[in-house]
Amino acid sequence: MENTSFVKESTTEDTGFLSLNPSTLEVIGKVNNTSKEEINATINKAKIAQKLWSARPDSERKEILLKVAEALQQNAQQLAEWITREQGKPLSGPGSNFEMQACVGWTQVPASLDVPEEIVFEDETRKDVLYRKPIGVVAAIAPWNWPLMIAIWQIIPSLRMGNAVILKPSEYTTFSTLEMIKVINSVLPEDVLQVVTGRGEVGSYLTAHPEIGKIMFTGSIATGKKVIEASSKNMARLTLECGGNDAGIILPGLDLTKHIDNIFWGAFLNMGQTCACLKRLYVHEDDYEKVAKALADYSSHIPMGDGANEANVLGPIQNKMQFDKIQDLIADSENIGADFLFTGQKPDSEGYFIPVTLIGNVDNGNRIVDEEQFGPVLPIIKYKTIEEAIAKANDSENGLGASVWSDNIKEAEEVAGQLEAGTVWINQHGAINPFVPFGGAKQSGYGVEFGIEGLKAVTVPKVISIKK
Ligand code: NDP
Fold first, then answer.
1. Rounded average pLDDT over 106-126
2. What's the confidence (pLDDT) of residue 14?
3. Binding-site residues, ligand 1, Cβ < 6 A
């Protein structure tokens, strides 16, 4: 998997960035910072390509994107190896092979859906027809946690609806993304999908460019707010997925044997580095010991280590910034006298490993509960009444997802109805689906991805109104 084609020697102007394997700290390559002149040229090429792409019959775009899905499937193994090497998630379990299958599915579904024109009004005097038109050039800003899958979420619906896309991968996961783009571009016409690389400044310049019509962003709230500011320059439409601090509420008396694996993976999928992971678990005080023990027992059997070894299903934290942030939250929990209910085995490695950690004797108001940890550390919080659990779950600036766990679905639905989140799952967490709209409430962002709503989000509505 040697890749030197994107490696550029450092110069005084080039503040390029080293991409590392987070399991071993092996250097993968040096990421080139695309210059402003190069970004301008990329946008010019995208504008020309977009006109030709959107002029094609819709059926042709669908067919081409289905061929993209086939190409992704054919290259799934080598792309999964790239993800493991650069992002860190293991090949096994819900890891990089799983991410590649999601890339294939999230390409096939938007390629198959239709957004037909709609007669929104008609009487004897007039007829008004609503069409969905491409916006133009879309800037896609992807993160490092699910670098290929989230890039696909941004790219494919945009292309499906006739836009051109310029993708800026996270500097941490550039090489795996470039490998995927090579595969996709072996099918697409020239310049419909292009990539610019480098640090946040590259994303900042791209998103504020006057020729950008839409920004698809996934990342932190802080950077999401910068993207909002950038869009004040060009009036770009926005889809912002700014993560969450998802609460899960276990209703009293849950039969854990049926649910413990889903609770574990709801919290620890991709080492907890997932926007819609379960990040705060609220448990009735009578069930607290039982839940903590069941989760600890389950966790103790989940192997962590270098993801290239197929025996491992948990891997490292993706980067040093995130590693330090999680360690800081663990240290803060120690300082406030939290209970460490379980700490897993740390692999004997140089890599950015943090073992699965279950923390008790904490509450809203403590940093480990209030802040998104984005790592394999789960606070378990006792509650006395359901009303208290709901109020604490809603006591957050975030509102991406939430979950309710119960053997009584009616009761779970009643609680779900009171939670402030874009999606509330019952007896599962983070169970996204390419047909089902996904987006956040509160500061988790705005706009939705997936399904028909996701396709509409990369279009401008256009009405043709006919006098009869
Ligand atoms: P960022 O929000 O900074 O990164 C997300 C993407 O935005 C990356 O491609 C990044 O590029 C790019 N970017 C950075 N600055 C700008 C800018 N001014 N304009 C446009 N694009 C920009 O997240 P971090 O990597 O700093 O992670 C911080 C926290 O964000 C995590 O601890 C986690 O809580 C959360 N997060 C949430 C994710 C989610 O899925 N919702 C995904 C990742 C992080 P580059 O990486 O090159 O700087």
1. 97
2. 47
3. 141-145, 168, 170-172, 199-200, 203-204, 207, 218-220, 223, 226-227, 241-243, 275, 322, 325, 372, 374
- Looking at the CA of residue 168, tell me the nearest atom of ligand 1: 9
User: What does the alpha-carbon distance between residue 16 and residue 395 come to, in Å, rounded to a whole number?
Assistant: 40
CB atoms within 10 A of CB 404: 30
Contacts of 143 (CB under 8 A, 6+ apart): 150, 170, 218, 219
> Domain map of the chain by residue range?
11-242+444-467, 246-433
Dump pLDDT digits (tens) for 152-192.
999 999 999 999 999 999 999 999 999 999 999 999 999 99
Q: What's the CATH fold of domain 11-242+444-467?
A: Aldehyde Dehydrogenase; Chain A, domain 1 (3.40.605)
Whether 81 is a known active-site residue: answer: no
The CATH architecture annotation of domain 246-433 reads: 3-Layer(aba) Sandwich (3.40)
**Which of 44, 326, 26, 304 has the alpha carbon at shortest distance from 175?**
26
- For the segment 223-241, the average pLDDT, to the nearest whole number, is 97
**Any residues with CB less than 8 A from the CB of 77 and at least 6 apart, and which?**
97, 100
Q: Collapsing DSSP states into helix, strand and coil, what is residue 6?
A: coil
